[in-house]
Amino acid sequence: MSNDVRHETDEILGSGTTRRQLLAMAAVGGAGLATVGTAGSARAAGTGAGTDGETVTLTVIGTTDLHGNVYNWDYFKNAEYTDSKGNDIGVAKASTIIKAIRAEVGAASCITLDAGDTIQGTPLAYYYAKIDPITAGATHPMAAAMNQVGYDAAALGNHEYNYGLDTLRAFESQLNFPLLSANSVDWNTGAPVFKPWVIKTIKLEDRKPIKVGILGLVTPGVAIWDKANVEGKVKFPGIIEQAKVFVPRLKAAGADVVIVSCHSGTNGSSSWGDALPYVENASALLAEQVPDIDAILVGHAHVEIPEKLVTNKQTGKQVVLSEPYYWGMRVTRMSLDLQKIRGQWQVVHSSSMLYNSNVVHEDTTVTEAVAAAHQKVLTYVNGVIGTCTEAMSAATSRYQDTAAMDFINFVQGDAVKAALVGTPQEGLPVLSIAAPFNKFAAIPQGDVTVRDVAGLYIYDNTLLGIVLTGAEIKDYLEKSATYFKQVSGTGPFTADQVTNAATPTAPNGTPDYNYDIMGGLDAALTYKIDIAQAPGSRILDLSYAGSPVGADAQFVVAINNYRQSGGGGFPHVVTAPVVYNRQIEIRQLLIDWASAHKVIDPPSFSHLDWKLVSNGVDIQVTG
């Protein structure tokens, strides 16, 4: 290592803390430093230049699901990020870990990858997609940050497609490394529309270099979730199916090692039911079914997997998988021991672990590269756009009707109703659905800023209107009610005792974003959810304007594009007639409504649409 590089690393880590001490503090599970630290460096010395039996260690460093987070900052709270587990977030924190690992083992023997979902998720990312778009010449802050880190490659995630192909291509052009996706293919020809793989050469002094093949794959759900952006342009074959095509091509091109950066979880589940013939979370199946893969950096599922070893059915060899926690909270480190066997490098042992970003400070080379953009977005999100007569909080929205959710449903329904004027559906009653996916959201009494309103809706979903019958509405609500665990009695229950039920498609628990709350304009729709009953028999007293909802009655339902495209596997919505689709982000609709009306008055739109009961009796749920 040169003196200049060592000086830069010491500045990042701070005086008084060695690299090894920092990494030891940050280690959170997996193989451990005894396997991959000094011992790895010793193995790299080998047993003789150019001879069979010599061993070297390749280090693969990974992040995933950064979702537009550069700083350890919560734009919706206008404060440093914090959560109940003490996590820190952002590329700048992860960069400190990444550079410490490189300094520990030698940068020349490291490969640094990301597994996707990069350009969506924060106001910082939204601003440079929609307000000052990179398609008009601005530099995306995630490109500026990731270039400072020095990634070798990144897989596309499904959220990369949220803003359309033009924005994605502009982002790609700003990177110093390739975006990979072997299963994003041309609609007509089936050829990859992004680079499917890349081979990086690790040069070794007096020894045969190691050729590392890196393959990118994305969950096929893009075809559902971003149908409006990709239909007629890009198709998304299955992960396993495409890997069976491209892994052999990588080996034929000379790859000694094959690493997959895979934006797909490990549990084999799919959120879309039978809407697609492919598996959403296929990384473990990929390791099991496709030979010649040595390691998989996992993304998409937002879970923490220090190390998972899967045996390939065909070769009997173990494949190491690791998924770092999202938003830069963790960094993966995989160690692949390679031995020269009959003149060819082969992986003979692999292990992995994670590092926690909360023990380090931010890499200033990253924060300085994004400082101007960060300040511009702070000014934007903290701008006052109106006032609110009463405080609204989403904290209890998962189990209790709240004004915060009523506001979302009111604005969505109002927008669709206004657009129906002059159409055949003008006279149909309008309903709306929304999910309580940000329980920390709150709008204060008094001045309201962009960030207050945006915090209610943290995803970049767009609004549609579809037509459903009364029977279909009932089916939809029954599906939504599977979110609740089956309990009897009136409580009091904690929220955890009744919410996030495990289902066949969500074995680790139904996420909040797959629970939909339905409401109507003018307090017209009411229903009860009886969680003492089995799923499928929970919706009681479903009424509209005081009368039971008839099976053949027709309603227009305001719904987001994720749900309408099949996300979550809700019934009827994919095939329902679409009567409104102007590609307007719901978050922006909320901001625009508050800006136009100046006053948010909860009593004017908030009403009791639904409640939880047990055998027909109201229950009590606490936070």
Automatic annotation (TrEMBL):
Full protein name: Nucleotidase
Family: Belongs to the 5'-nucleotidase family.
BP-aspect Gene Ontology terms: nucleotide catabolic process
InterPro entries: 5'-Nucleotdase_C, 5'-Nucleotdase_C_sf, 5_nucleotidase/apyrase, Calcineurin-like_PHP, CpdB_N, Metallo-depent_PP-like, TAT_signal
Presence of the UniProt keyword 4Fe-4S in the record: no
The organism's place on the tree of life at top rank: Bacteria
Gene3D superfamilies: 3.60.21.10, 5'-Nucleotidase, C-terminal domain
SUPFAM superfamilies: 5'-nucleotidase (syn. UDP-sugar hydrolase), C-terminal domain, Metallo-dependent phosphatases
Any single GO CC term annotated in Swiss-Prot or TrEMBL for this entry: outer membrane-bounded periplasmic space
tRNA-binding found in the keyword field: no
All copies of domain Calcineurin-like phosphoesterase, residue ranges: 59-303
Domain 5'-Nucleotidase C-terminal residue range list: 384-573
PROSITE patterns: TAT
Keyword terms: Hydrolase, Metal-binding, Nucleotide-binding, Signal
GO MF terms, alphabetically ordered: hydrolase activity; metal ion binding; nucleotide binding
Species: Intrasporangium oryzae NRRL B-24470
